[in-house]
Amino acid sequence: MSAAIILHEYAASGNCWKIRATAALAGVAIERREYDIVRGETRTPEFLATVNANGRIPVLQVGDRFLPESNAACVYLGEGTDLIPHDNFDRADMLRWMFWEQYNHEPNVATLRFWTGWIGLDSLTPVQAGQVDAKRAAGDAALALMDEHLARHDWFVGDSVTLADIALYPYTAKAGEGGFELARYPAVRAWLARVEGVAGFVPFA
């Protein structure tokens, strides 16, 4: 990777952490540019015109090209490393967990963390407030599925850390900030400790 690599991010975001963690584990140097999403810094005309017309971060910039979506950026950075399995089935299974994270896990676990810590449950719109119970149930279902899998496997795919683990780590680690009780999921907690013990692990503050 000869082109300069820049991460456009909001550091408190788990989706942004995934990219930082992948870069660290893959030994890829990145430059970081911080935006305050609460102040609308990703909705400015300049950002929309030059970084991401969708107005969201993270975005990985490689030279003059821009790659939105955290898991896509992780795959780009992880190519050629052991973070991506060499076996075709295991690679596809890794992607399956990464897709599942964005569809079943993040919209529930991460959203409740944001609503609780950034907006306040008492300040939600009526539509958001009406979704809280459903998101909590769906988030607990996701954590329970993870716990069942991790009771039988040390990692989500194969016998070492992969991008599947990186994708699922941050919002799981911070699930308590959204009101989820991680004590109910002992296999998940043991897995979190394994991820944190990987050489080169980047803490998610």
From TrEMBL:
GST N-terminal domain segment(s): 3-85
All residue ranges annotated as the GST C-terminal domain in the record: 87-205
Regions annotated as coiled coil: none
Domain of life where this protein originates: Bacteria
UniProt cross-references to InterPro entries, sorted A to Z: Glutathione-S-Trfase_C-like, Glutathione-S-Trfase_C_sf, Glutathione_S-Trfase, Glutathione_S-Trfase_N, GST_C, Thioredoxin-like_sf
Gene3D superfamilies cross-referenced by the UniProt entry: 1.20.1050.10, Glutaredoxin
Family matches, as Pfam families: GST_C, GST_N
Listed PROSITE patterns: GST_CTER, GST_NTER
Record family assignment: Belongs to the GST superfamily.
Protein name stated in the entry: Glutathione S-transferase family protein
UniProt organism field: Sphingomonas donggukensis
